[in-house]
């Protein structure tokens, strides 16, 4: 093992093509991090005394604590929900496993702010659920409410990464542990967990960063976190203070990325997919299915039912301006597909290098691509408004710049899946190809690429469905008049014409749901 | 970045250009004015293409034809303004608008970041605070004289850099099962002290008109009284803070809350949809609680088509435009010659505060105060 690593290290230093790859990764990292320059530009415009006063104010402290609380809460609860579901759907004899896998993954397709709209409509003393049951339900609000809702819509990140790792893990190891008299729990803790830990960490990182960057849900539930505070300052055109808060958010993000880099440090994942003994659930299959069904009802059935009610009752009066057009759906799909393609292409060198090289630079470049995911869309949006309008007028307010904004925001999802799939490729396969006189490029094209393709596609799908949901950067950078499903939902919901928001929301869920099926199919193939 | 640092120099440049423009107009050199007006547009001259607009309200028939495509950044919502844009488009074969919709904060922030390079010709927003800020940043262009003269002085910029298009008043929305309109106080300060409103009152601090309301209160009543009002609302009344005007009004309609401080039109929309909803509006008298604010327009300094934007603005200020606001949006006209015929109380009944709307741009003090007292969402 050690000698193998040494061998690879020497290979890295000797290989010029890896140098080229490092340079390429560096360019991509620099490119996607470039909008952050704007934050520094604005933050330095604050008078230093005032900056200090704002930074050490009690309120800023409160915001920091609340943001950390939200991020930590979402991360922990996502693991607590995502990991058991992944184990259940891959390692147990749960009936209808495919169905439950889809149910468990689908909440990711619903934008959390839409979930928040629906939950606020459904619960509370006068909500639809209270009226249906005749019992007043508690209102969903505050930090606890936001943690709950964001967790319910982001735990699938953990579920998906963990599931992929479990599917590709050599489960005969667990059997070996069991024959050595380890009980099931101990076998899980000592054998399975170390193997899937990097995957859990990768998923938890995405969930945590999503939580820290989410604007809609905390704002809607009256929680003051970085994003809502930043947005509040933008509203009053206090852009400089917003930039200061963004800097703090970046610092927090940096720390999170460091922690994850330690926890998620990739041990060489064991290849192979020997199917070992399954966990026999017995009577426990009922609570297991009930649990997943419960999550499915809360996260999927409730919002869809609420939209259905809005649609059928015609809630909100008539506003022909908001009439649905298929062009909105086409625009959404077009933009999301472009973002997915570009992000997958960018992720390939970054993810490949991060998996194949132990160099600090490779790791650094990979981490840098994550930062955009934690920065609220409104900040990335405004940064690109500044750079676009003043220095790149020819692409300002056009599709390419908007797609670039999406790539900045969502690239890490593609990087993460690509890197994981490269890690799973048995090193001996490309080596074998090399000994058969295949060139490096040919080896990559004919051996490595086909093996990692499912992971790359899965990453593209994740970027696709998060782009479908993206709102703030879209509003700022969309080519004028190029409306999408989410901008229509935003306009109609914001002015209380709910029924016009219902149809695009349902269509959004259906399209993203279909893309999720593609993703799950890819993962099965991957296994 | 540059655009902020170079305000001073650009303001001088602006003045020189205005001076030239004025000279050109006075000698009637239409072609010269056309050259100064910009490039790539079909209309010549910043001055009226046909009739000038007047306080007595002219008709679209009297105005010059619109031609070409006008780019508008709108912070008014599509449901409220798109029907008017469509009506104007329908009048002319060769005219279309390209409208970008977003929040007022986003739009203004974008305009400031874009500076002179903004693709927008016209900024159309909900509240004069943003217009005054645009003027302060030297990004607004002085409007033609006839436009400035036509609009009531209270509803436009005294220096002529922006004009109101329609007026609205802040109101008290209340649940009619909980309160009788006559029992409500007409003093905004009592809403922060009366125990009847504890736990059942709400505000929406992220809206432009709310900020304007706080700025006006600081101007009129002083910072201490305002701070007292805000902190009483937060601490004693336990006011609920909403980030959306529609959910705020709905909470009152469905009984979750009893009183909402906000704009009257959300209540109007809920009642339009469900006339039996237990919801009504009341107004305070002659205090910041009934601040009269305008939605309005500014032509951008960097506009490609200032002449088209000017003639378009005249259409908004013509009788058809003003009637639209009154009839469709339940707003007040800004021309003396147009009568208000809607359901709301006439302005002299409410006796709204006399207030220089340009002062509404000064939000920093208000913003700091709200932040310190914890009234932020």
From TrEMBL, chain B:
Protein name (record): Extracellular solute-binding protein
Pfam families, per database record: SBP_bac_6 (PF13343)
Key word Signal present: yes
Keywords: Signal
PROSITE patterns in UniProt: PROKAR_LIPOPROTEIN, TAT
InterPro entries the record matches: Ferric-bd, TAT_signal, TAT_signal_bac_arc
